[in-house]
Amino acid sequence: MENRNAQKDDSVYGRRQFFVAMGSGALALATTGGLVLTGNFLRPNVLFEPPAKFLVGKPNQYPLDSVVYLAKPKILVIREKEGYFYALSTVCTHLGCIVNWKAQEEIIACPCHGSRFNKLGEVTGGPAPKPLPHFAMNLTVDGYLEVDKNVLVDLSDVLKI
Ligand code: FES
């Protein structure tokens, strides 16, 4: 009889321990989840974008009559054979795909829906509704080319050095 009560006590004790452990685990899980959510709420929800105004090197890095694609700022730096510069966006004005310079054909082509642009960025074919935007270019006092994507300029607005 005594042995039976001891077994019953053991089983009650074991069950109690089990429920205490489960409750503690659930509490710890809920606390951790709450802390993670609070941390996410307190962290600033900021989108880090590259600066809109940046240097693209020295003029002598660009040969005359060249088109250079710069992937990170998504621009084409074009130096005409007369020596002047301009910078074009490589974001297609149709639905935003990145356009490519095709040197053999001397066109800028969009791989998505077939828009075509001439070297000035003017639409020559396809669904693009507008020319590729031109960004302002300047020469810094220490001789670097600087592009400002915040400032759009006219097609005829080029940087003469
Ligand atoms: S996104 Fe360039 S043609 Fe559609």
Question: How would you describe what is shown here?
Answer:
It is a single chain. By secondary structure, the protein is α+β, with helices and mostly antiparallel strands. The longest helix is centred in the first third of the chain and has 41 residues, at 2-42. It is elongated. The strands form two sheets. Strands 1-10-9-4-3-2 form a six-stranded antiparallel beta sheet, with no helix packed on it. Strands 5-6-7-8 form a four-stranded antiparallel beta sheet, with no helix packed on it. The chain has two domains: 1-48; 53-153, Rieske Iron-sulfur Protein. The model has no long low-confidence stretch (mean pLDDT 91). It has one helix at residues 2-42, and strands at residues 53-55, 66-70, 75-79, 85-89, 100-102, 107-109, 116-117, 123-125, 134-139, 145-153. It is 25% helix and 27% strand. It binds FE2/S2 (inorganic) cluster (FES).
Let me know the average pLDDT. 91
- Tell me the number of helical segments per DSSP (H or I, 4 or more residues long): 1
Show unreliable segments: none
Bound molecules: FE2/S2 (inorganic) cluster
Structural class: alpha+beta
- How much is the radius of gyration in Å? 32 Å
- The CATH class of the largest domain is Mainly Beta
Give the CATH H-level superfamily of the largest domain: Rieske [2Fe-2S] iron-sulphur domain
Indicate the proportion of strand residues. 25-35%
Q: Which percent range fits the helix content?
A: 25-40%
CATH fold node name of the largest domain = Rieske Iron-sulfur Protein
Distance between the termini: 106 Å
Largest sheet: 6 strands, antiparallel
Following the backbone from N to C, one meets helices and strands in this order, namely HEEEEEEEEEE
Strand ordering within the main sheet: 1-10-9-4-3-2
CATH architecture of the largest domain, by name, is 3-layer Sandwich
Instruction: Please give the number of β-strands.
Output: 10
Count of individual domains: 2
